[in-house]
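Thread title: Can someone regenerate the structure for this chain?

I was given the following input by a collaborator and told the matching structure tokens would be attached. They weren't. Posting the sequence so someone can regenerate them.
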Amino acid sequence: MSAPVDPAPPVKGDTALRFPLATFGQVRHEVATQLRRVRHGRPALLAAVLLLSLGAWATVTVPQLMGRIVDVVTGTSSQPFWQLGVALFGAAVTGAVLSAGGFYLVSRVAERVIANLRQDMVGTALGLPTHRVEDAGSGDLVSRSTDDVSELSTAVTETVPILTGSVFTLAATVIALFALDWQFLLVPLLVAPVYYLAARLYLRRAPGRYAEERAAMAERAHRVLEAIRGRATVRAFSMEDRMHHEIANASWNVVTKGIRARTTMLILNVWMLIAEFGMLALTLIIGYHLVGGGTLTVGAVTGAVLMVIRLRGPLNMVMRVLDVVQSGYASLARIVGVVADPPVPVPDVGAGTPLGRVELRGVSFSYGGGWAVRDIDFTVEPGQTVAIVGVSGAGKTTVAALLAGLLVPDRGEVLVDDHPVSSLSDRERIARLATVSQEVHVFSGTLRQDLTLARPDATDDQLLTALDRVHARGWFGRLADGLDTVVGARGIHLDPVAAQQLALARVLLLDPAIVVMDEATAEAGSAGAGALEDAADEVTRDRSAVVVAHRLDQASRADRILVMDSGRIVESGTHDQLLTRDGIYRRLWTAWSAGRRAAGR
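Best answer:
Regenerated them for you:
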């Protein structure tokens, strides 16, 4: 009888789990919703369109006045020259002022809409299950909230005034040409199909190419963030060349995708040059015929020619902003793709009073290649501390992430108080589970604000007690403003030990039934190791704990130790039990003890 075959891990593409692109209907609905949220948004937008339209009308009168000046110079008209000069100046100034006012209103409304969109996008992402954001990749989210928002802002402020002014200018010019002589209508009628064909060819190819470019930018952001956040690991394993190569490939992919998108615009420019040549040639031929037949004066034809030249301008602008419009729409679709389907709050499953029991049953997980962890089975009883040790790459951090709900297993179950951790509501999960990793974040604000994130109703005495329990009073006593001291990016930068103590104090204030510590004392160094390990012991006391142990003396104090190798649990027992075996833990402990003796500790 043949042995059972271990099933292969599921295939996971790099981009398969990215946030989706919104459909046109979703984009239209979201923009309308955001516009209603802006105070006086619709009236302001209508006023902007009106001002831009009037500004375009004023500019159309400029070539007509210039044609009259030609008639005055040739003696065909007796109208005073100064009157025409004043009217010409007034039309130019009026057009500029009205256009500027419209542009201001458009920018004001558009930027507020974009700001609300970005806020909703980030808020939606924060409301998503943590594993959903992890699967999609933080680089994708960062790219959508920075690059895409910037691209959309540029597109809106550049294209809305241009499109509004151009549409009115086109309509006003066609009416003015018809008033001079119907034959001038042949110019836009014969040239319009060329522009239509050029635009159709462009729109057929451009959206996909611009979407590919934005996706490539997201991948580049993901690679850069990955290298920066994991710089310690990169240096420890001498992965600098590999990471540099991956970032270079991602950056070059952005370049190639960008060139491909811009090539589409270059082809459009060729079509535009052909259309412009035909338009000017037709205008000159018709004008020559009308002047020769005595139908129009030279000044009137000059005005018509100038109007056609100005007609060429708006047409070119409309065609040229298609480049920006397509890029902007691709960015808008990526932004709305995050907020179009907001997460439905996970209801309570009736988990009851937190007990602190953890169980992993046959858990296996893959990042897309081979299995990262396979067939993991262990239980943490209430109040028990379980340490996980092993060499780098053994799968320790993956197990911690699965237990914390940051990842969802491909096989098996992760149960907290007999319920799948992914099924718990936010309220139920927060009451049961907290995670402290090696990399902690100090939020910008006062120390009090940073601590009360875990417990908003905590008093100052409770905050100080938490700091005392994690042995943080040493550096806290040196803060001139105490709890009102501004920390984080805009204030005092706490060293790694202080930042970790702050994170541990937040866990004490949160008071969960289970704490997962993923090498939380790894950054302590020799100077802060004792204080930070004592703080970690204080946090794990009287509650269930799973500790990914960087320091084996911390693991030795656990109720049970799990030794991992190549994604599997290969040894299990207490510190004393494992030392009696000739296994991986004994060899690790021997090497660890020798290193401490050599260092004089």
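Residues 39 and 167 are 27 Å apart (CA to CA).
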